[in-house]
Amino acid sequence: MANLKEVRNRITSVSSTQQITKAMKMVSAAKLKRATNAILQLRPYANKLRDILADVSASVEGSNSPFTVDREPNKVLIVVVSSNRGLAGAFNANVIKATNNLIFNKYAEQHAKGNLSIIGIGKKGYDFYSKRNFNVVANHSDLFSDLNFGSVSVVTEFIMEQFKEGNFDRIEVVYNQFKNAAVQELTAEQILPLLPAEENKQHTHKAKIEAEVDYIIEPSKEKIIEELIPKAIKIQLYKAVLDSNASEHGARMTAMDKATENAGDLLKSLKLSYNQARQAAITTELTEIVSGAAALSNG
């Protein structure tokens, strides 16, 4: 009977867990819809802005922008975009793994000299690196409570100012790029210095095919480039954060769906065990009754 009680308690516990994972899946599905709409609306704008910047800057001799200065990467900043909460499968672990690969392979020399810094967007990434004594210069976990272009722009402006002053020579962002609810692609992008027009053009087939787009520009190409470059950098980081936000909800929805399914399988197994134990207990009791009756009749 003690065994029956233990199995009953486990069935109750697993049923409660299944209800929680089912509810979390539904919440993530609702948030995923909003997050997906946000990133899908931004992508065409971001891509077009990049194309225009590439086409216009290609027709201008050089650039006076401080954000295009390509220095030797002696001091590096990595922006790690994770989430504030767990229960999202390998979402955060993959971001941290990709960041570690970047640190210990591409920027191992800078890290060894203490010239590598990190900005955390998301509590999980910030906690991981701050607890391991990395040089974490800022934490922006609060961005996800009210995610908008203005709040992300504050982070971008800080990054741009640091690069402009020469405190960092190269800045990269590591995040999960949203593909669909079940697929997120780990991405490391260089934010600063801004990639040359030739490299930007390789991102789109259209830019490869069209030799030149004839834009009507006022007041001048130089002035337009001066205005477009900071905006393009802000859009790039904002897109990375939106991508990560959508990826997080997709990963959590998938993880909770799998957890709910696993809880269902475990419940079936536990109920089978319960029924078998109950049947065994009944059989034992019947055997004892029959044995007792036989003993009395013999006596």
Give the rounded overall mean pLDDT: 85
Strand content: 5-15%
Shape: elongated
**What is the C-alpha radius of gyration, as a whole number of Å?**
29 Å
* Straight-line N-to-C gap: 30 Å
Order of helices and strands: HEHHEHEHEEHHH
Helix percentage range: 55-70%
3D architecture notes:
Helix content is 64%, strand content 13%. The chain has eight helices and five strands, in the order αβααβαβαββααα. It has helices spanning 2-58, 91-106, 108-112, 123-131, 149-164, 197-201, 205-209, 221-298, and strands spanning 76-81, 116-121, 135-139, 170-180, 183-192. Helix 1 packs antiparallel against helix 8 (221-298). Strand 2 (116-121), helix 4 (123-131) and strand 3 (135-139) form a beta-alpha-beta unit. Strands 3-2-1-4-5 form a five-stranded mixed beta sheet. Mean pLDDT is 85; it is low at 200-211. The protein is elongated and about 115 Å long. With 299 residues, the protein is of the alpha/beta class.
